[in-house]
Design goal:
The structure holds two protein chains of two kinds.
Chain A lengths: L23 E5 L2 E5 L5 H7 L6 E2 L6 E2 L12 E4 L2 E5 L10 E3 L16 E14 L3 H10 L6 E4 L28 H12 L5 E4 L2 E7 L4 E7 L4 E14 L3 E3 L12 E3 H10 L7 E5 L3 H12 L3 E7 L8 H9 L4 E3 L1 E7 L6 E6 L12 E3 L3 E4 L3 E3 L2 H5 L4 E4 L4 E4 L12 E3 L9 H18 L5 H17 L6 H9 L7
Parallel strand pairs in A: 1-7, 8-9, 8-13, 9-10, 13-26, 15-22, 16-17, 16-22, 17-18
Antiparallel strand pairs in A: 1-2, 3-4, 5-6, 5-7, 11-12, 12-13, 14-23, 19-20, 20-21, 24-25
Helix pairs in contact in A: 2-3, 2-8, 4-5, 5-6, 8-9
Chain B lengths: L15 E3 L4 E2 H15 L6 H8 L12 H14 L34
Antiparallel strand pairs in B: 1-2
Classes of the chains: A alpha/beta, B mainly alpha.
The structure holds flavin-adenine dinucleotide (FAD).
Chain lengths: 488, 113
């Protein structure tokens, strides 16, 4: 009501800069909000200090985005009269009218505009779902076969999780050590553009798959009221849908301000927006400590990084970096609750004993407006499940994952998997699995060359070797539980 | 900005397991007791439970909460001496996998019918 909106954008940063372009204007519940052309609606609203996007269906609790990558559905709003639009993957347009929805409203949703839907029947030799490192590498590897390839991603910008990783990767040369994740993504995309037989469709969500004849249905959004409904028949399918960040069960875990560490990373690094001023990070693995470091770069006060385990699982280099910044790491600690009126205002942490039971009297209250969850990811296997792939629970790989051959083919012939969707690991292995799956799709279709077979042999060898190192033993063990033995 | 009604006190916050269907930890335990009465502890499968509790069946299709819901299920069943192996997925998710407007699949608008 008349109050002016904040600007949470970061205008000075030690390593990043954002080419924002000319500001435009959108309206949010009757107020005018400044946005920039590269932003999504959710990013622009967050920048203006809007934390609560919607109300929950039964308890009527205020809710805000948790994942920022189109998976959690907590950012849905009415846009230009169209109800339930996921604003985190919707690019802003000048003059857009955004309204928060209230499920307790008596008014039923009536789209102000008629949807314009164009139906397309398409066929490809290979359809790849997900344009993260796995999907992009798969397309690149299969491209020389000349197959007609479509890569589909619901996000407006391709690159998956890589686009928010502004730190330099380490590892071996094959795994792009020394390069920032965001630059790896840029490289993959520009290399892909040189292949006229590969189409990259962004803002295209895969919404279903219908056996027996096998039709993949995707909706390409061109604004909120214009869609291309794609009926895709492909000789081979490759699922590289990535993963979704997990949360924990604690009081107040749904308050606006509680979000995935990756979501916070998206706001900070992709859009240059401060998600909070003071933050508690839960999980001191690689993700937790990297995000803590990046938060500090963004000018955010990291009050603590906590982990329930007695030692951090993060690479020493990363952990040392945040210790040097004097960011407190509390091990054997967990969160008791997040509290606040409409959004997080504070959090209480406490110590746990050897069997992870909280120790009374060790509570510490932290004044924070952000609680970021870095407690692992769950592979996104919904599509694979729909396609009929056999799926097994493998804790070492982060949850439910599909059975696969060493060529990354699932239990369903012609359906391949790669990257986090096949088990939570990292970008380097996602790219290698993508390569193996892409090559295998081509080879199995009779479109491979000797060079491709040789490349695949090398990629498999690299992956096996990589997983021999002590850090990846667990992964190796996990993979062995879902490996389909098969005569080549 | 947050409306006054429906607001729990700052200190008393529910523990939400499934955000989309708004299910708290207590809700999940209550529906488990109901499910056990309906199916019997031995015959109860996770899929029956999931449908009854409605957790995991909202907009996000369980992407966010499946593992938490399973943990509640497994630990409550364990209290009754029943080991729940989260081995192979026994259910199929439904299309649409992502929330899209219904109008995408409608041929004509109401006025035209
Ligand atoms: C904070 C953080 C730091 C990390 N640091 C490192 C590091 O230093 N080194 C390293 O090697 N790895 C790192 N990783 C891990 C790495 O980012 C991931 O392992 C990798 O991105 C997985 O690649 P992917 O292609 O399988 O999935 P993603 O990158 O998640 O891509 C999946 C894509 O699929 C799309 N998608 C999903 N469902 C659908 C659908 N139904 N329809 C259309 N599109 C869909 C998504 O929009 C997304 O673009 C880090 C991860 C995080 C979160």
């Amino acid at each position: 009501m008349g109050e002016s909106m904040q600007d949470r954008r970061i205008w000075e940063h030690p390593v990043l800069s954002w080419d924002r372009g000319t500001p435009l204007s959108i309206s949010y519940d009757g107020r005018s909000v400044t946005a920039y052309p590269n932003e999504t609606v959710a990013a622009a609203l967050y920048a203006a200090g809007v934390l609560a996007f919607t109300r929950s269906s039964y308890l009527h609790r205020p809710r805000g985005p948790f994942c920022m990558i189109g998976k959690c559905s907590q950012c849905m709003m009415r846009v230009d009269g169209v109800p339930h639009v996921r604003t985190c993957i919707l690019p802003v347009e000048d003059g857009m009218v955004i309204e928060s929805e209230d499920p307790h409203d008596s008014e039923y949703p009536t789209p102000a505009r008629e949807l314009r839907v164009e139906r397309q029947e398409l066929s490809y030799d290979l359809a790849i779902i997900g344009a993260g490192p796995a999907g992009l590498s798969a397309a690149l590897a299969a491209a020389p076969s000349g197959m007609r390839i479509a890569v589909l991603d619901q996000s407006p910008y391709p690159g998956g999780q890589l686009v928010k990783q502004t730190h330099k990767f380490f590892g071996t040369k094959e795994s792009f050590a020394g390069t920032r994740g965001v630059d790896i993504a840029r490289n993959l995309i520009s290399m892909l553009k040189e292949h006229p037989n590969v189409e990259l469709h962004t803002t295209t969500q895969v919404i279903g798959y219908y056996p027996p004849e096998g039709v993949l249905i995707a909706a390409r959004a061109e604004g909120v009221d214009k869609y291309k409904l794609m009926y895709i028949r492909a000789g081979r399918y490759l699922v590289a849908t990535g993963a979704m960040e997990r949360t924990l069960a604690f009081p107040g875990n749904d308050l606006p301000g509680v979000m995935g560490a990756g979501a916070a990373q998206t706001l900070m690094n992709v859009f240059g927006i401060k998600p909070a001023d003071d933050v508690l990070i839960i999980g001191a693995g690689n993700v937790g400590v990297i995000v803590a470091y990046q938060a500090r770069q963004a000018g955010i006060n990291v009050r603590a990084v906590i982990d329930i385990l007695p030692k951090t699982a993060a690479y020493l280099v990363h952990a040392a970096k945040i210790r040097r910044l004097r960011i407190p790491i509390f091990l054997e600690h967990t969160i008791k609750g997040a509290y606040g009126d409409g959004a997080v205002e504070s959090a209480v942490i406490y110590q746990v004993d050897r069997s992870f039971r909280p120790i009374e009297g060790t509570e510490k209250e932290l004044k924070v407006d952000g609680v970021w969850m870095a407690v692992g990811l769950s592979p996104s296997v919904e599509l694979l499940n729909k396609m009929g792939a056999r799926i097994k629970f493998v804790p070492e790989l982060g949850g439910y994952v599909p059975y696969r051959t060493k060529y990354m083919e699932t239990s369903v012939r012609g359906v391949y998997v790669a990257g986090d969707a096949s088990g939570i690991e990292e970008a380097s292995t996602a790219m290698m699995e993508g390569r193996i799956a892409g090559l295998s799709a081509a080879i199995s279709a009779g479109r491979g060359t000797d060079a491709m077979a040789e490349e695949r042999r090398k990629a498999i060898e690299w992956l096996d070797l990589f997983r021999e190192s002590p850090d990846y033993r667990r992964i190796k063990e996990g993979v062995s539980k879902v490996l389909i033995q098969e005569a080549a | 900005m947050a409306g006054a009604e429906g607001r729990s006190s700052v200190r008393e916050q529910p523990t939400i397991v499934c955000r989309c269907m708004d299910k708290t930890q207590e809700d999940l335990i209550k529906s488990l007791q109901m499910a056990i009465r309906m199916f019997g502890p031995e015959a109860l499968e996770f899929e029956n439970y999931r449908r009854l509790a409605t957790a995991t069946t909202g907009f996000c299709q369980g992407r966010g909460c499946l593992s938490l819901v399973q943990r509640v299920f497994a630990s409550e069943m364990k209290k009754m001496g029943i080991e729940f192996g989260m081995d192979e997925i026994q259910f199929r998710v439904r299309s649409p996998l992502q929330p899209v407007p219904l109008g995408l699949f409608a041929r004509r608008s109401l006025e035209e019918v």
